[in-house]
């Protein structure tokens, strides 16, 4: 069990006065591995990721256990969570347009991670930040360091977010669609950085994605979510042989190069499995 970094049992999340939970009784463990979480929009993937970080102030989060290396995250105060976020567990958010502070320069936001969590000079923080910008394939890192978020493209903003979240060398990284705004070359480079962190530093990586090909080829395990629940967990290499009708439906709805030019199948949401999960 020493390889288990995170142990979550019966996690549920409910927003405000909603009639049902957005995440319902989800249980899983995360080791030093790459865990992919897939499912349609609204299936609870991102909500679960934010719940692990305690980033849902307007939601009710409950679990039998949400254990991170012997610490129950649900029992920590907000001040204690501030020491965990960014340093021990970091989250690469999906849309840098809303995640970066528009009134602060990009470089200052990146360096803040080091200045908050480590005893380090501003000069050292700047140098390490520039090195990380270069590592995520940003050209002219010194120029980009001084820009404001509105002055960078979507793809560059995504790489800035990735650099910011990896800089403190966290134990767990939760990546919500981390490569969605990147071109193919940069995407491969970023995935290589994440893969090296798992293999060389032994971190746990959670990839939240709609891209079935990405999780099949990059992740070790895949967790499939529907209507706030986990319907199936399997090895990524076995995704084509999934047993649950929902997982098979997702795979069938994916266009394939050289495949038949016929309308893609649509999930039957009136099927017994769907009604059972949503009940």
Automatic annotation (TrEMBL):
Protein name: Peptide/nickel transport system ATP-binding protein
Main location: membrane
ABC transporter domain location: 6-252
Compartmental location: Cell inner membrane
Organism: Phyllobacterium leguminum
Stated family: Belongs to the ABC transporter superfamily.
Membrane topology type: Peripheral membrane protein
Entry keyword set: ATP-binding, Cell membrane, Membrane, Nucleotide-binding, Transport
Pfam family, one: ABC_tran
Cellular component terms (Gene Ontology): plasma membrane
Keyword field contains Nucleotide-binding: yes
């Amino acid at each position: 069990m020493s390889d288990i970094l995170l142990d979550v049992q019966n996690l549920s999340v409910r927003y405000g006065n909603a009639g049902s939970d957005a995440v319902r009784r989800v249980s899983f463990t995360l080791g030093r591995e790459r865990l992919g979480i897939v499912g349609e929009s609204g299936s609870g993937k991102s909500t679960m990721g934010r719940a692990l970080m305690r980033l849902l102030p307007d939601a009710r989060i409950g679990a039998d256990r949400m254990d991170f290396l012997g610490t129950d995250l649900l029992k920590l105060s907000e001040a204690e969570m501030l020491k965990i976020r960014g340093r021990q567990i970091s989250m690469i958010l999906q849309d840098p347009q809303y995640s970066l502070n528009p009134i602060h320069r990009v470089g200052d936001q990146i360096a803040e991670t080091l200045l908050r969590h480590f005893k380090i000079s501003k000069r050292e923080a700047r140098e390490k930040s520039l090195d990380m910008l270069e590592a995520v394939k940003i050209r002219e890192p010194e120029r980009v360091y001084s820009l404001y978020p509105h002055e960078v493209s979507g793809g560059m903003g995504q790489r800035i977010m990735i650099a910011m979240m990896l800089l403190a060398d966290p134990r767990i990284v939760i990546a919500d669609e981390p490569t969605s705004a990147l071109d193919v070359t940069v995407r491969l480079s970023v995935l290589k950085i994440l893969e090296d962190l798992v293999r060389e530093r032994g971190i746990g990586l959670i990839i939240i994605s709609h891209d079935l090909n990405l999780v099949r080829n990059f992740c070790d395990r895949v967790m499939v979510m529907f209507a706030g629940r986990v319907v199936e967990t399997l090895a990524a290499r076995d995704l084509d042989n999934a047993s649950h009708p929902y997982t098979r439906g997702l795979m069938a709805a994916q266009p394939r190069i050289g495949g038949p030019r016929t309308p893609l199948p649509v999930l039957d949401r009136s099927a017994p499995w769907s009604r059972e999960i949503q009940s």
